[in-house]
Amino acid sequence: MPFDPVRDAVLNSPATEGLPTSPSVARRATHLSVLLNSDSDPLPRPSSSLSQIIHSEPPDKLSSVTSLKKAPERASSPSDTRPSSSYFQLSSNTPPVPMRTPPLLYNPTQRISPPDSLLKPMSKAELEMYKSYVGTGTARLTKRKRPKDDSDTADELPVKKSIGGGGVVVEHYNSRPEVGVIQRQDSPIIGLKNFNNWVKSVLISKFAHPALAASSVRSQRNKGRVLDLGCGKGGDITKWSKAKICDYVGADIAAVSVEQAQERWEFSRNASRIQASFASYDFCTQNLDEVFPSDVLAKPFDVVSSQFCIHYAFEKEETARRLLRNVTNWLRPGGRFIGTIPNAEQLLENLQKLPPDSQDLSFGNSIYNVRFESREHTGVFGHKYWFFLQDAVEDVPEYLVHWDDFVSLAAEYHLHPLYKEEFHDVFSEHRDHPEFGPLMVRMRVVDNNGETSMDEDQWDAASNVQFLPTR
């Protein structure tokens, strides 16, 4: 019987209800090797190989050939499980026609993982590992390994290269990976971080919100423009989003941190309602219009914020003046410049408590350390120390900001102080506030019973910081 593809499709269709069940119409397999080797319904195929054409009979004689028989199979041992090749032979003693070997099942010989590993559930160790897994993107933030050194000094501890204060700061913050919200809660100083974020929220609500409300820049329900100098990884973007601003401009000396800040903004819920621009920028050595296009700076800012980074500019007078000039050139009259700085008075007090003959000019506790290079210093700028904070700052150079000198210098740029307070005093002043008190619970500074997760060492570290709004 000649092969009928329509008949074959019907017989092998899942819908077989109502079809006769005689052997002549019984369902049969359609695998290629079964069709070719089956004794029923033999299917002669014209060959197009060169040897077949040369040695075959003329077409008129081939038409008289009606019978096909299967060639004898190759003897195989019981242990031979390889698929055997087969061929058909015309009864008129024509040369054998090789046929294709049935297709092999997918069976790669150089797999990376075992074939049964894809559906295997993860072990407890793997589950624990992925709780703190932050993704392959973090790999680009890690430092490259140095090539193996065969010199005699290879076993000595590496010495940090002196590439300038700004260079060390950039290297530090570029090398710090971005972690998720869940992993951030495992930080050993999570109580201190929550406390600092709460203080900044108070600062923004009390002094930035009024300036934003008076802004002439409006977009639907949003209004106001913010310039975030030292935006880091974008930790304050959520705070400014809740303030319902129109425009956010973030700049930081660490280029990798700027990229992470932009990614954080792109995935925020308010990204569609806020215009945002980001750039890698050193406010100590560059003017703002050197890194941002003119349309970003076409309108002045209502608020300029600089959190935990003003002190880097006080290495020398030139860099401090450039910072203040960048602020006042792009801040509208009546706008607010807000920021946080180390408490110079507290740091110097701790330094003076050290024994007079001590060569080690460092102090701190289990989570932070401050190390001065010299006990005495003349002049306003350049009083250098190295600061370490567990899970936050890895021994970077900073500079004291003396408050009275800072006020005098800022006045030359029409910036005048409105409020100055230490973090501890902010806590005492606003812990019972109808808005900021409940905010402490929501930001996990304290629990519902008023107890804080900050231990004594974290509370001591917070005493070395103060914040200030000006103008």
From TrEMBL:
GO terms for cellular component: nucleus. It catalyses: a 5'-end (5'-triphosphoguanosine)-ribonucleoside in mRNA + S-adenosyl-L-methionine = a 5'-end (N(7)-methyl 5'-triphosphoguanosine)-ribonucleoside in mRNA + S-adenosyl-L-homocysteine. GO terms for molecular function: mRNA 5'-cap (guanine-N7-)-methyltransferase activity; RNA binding. Residues 13-24 have a biased composition (Polar residues). Residues 1-117, 138-160 are annotated as: Disordered. Pfam families: mRNA_G-N7_MeTrfase. Its EC number is 2.1.1.56. Responsible for methylating the 5'-cap structure of mRNAs. This is mRNA cap guanine-N(7) methyltransferase.
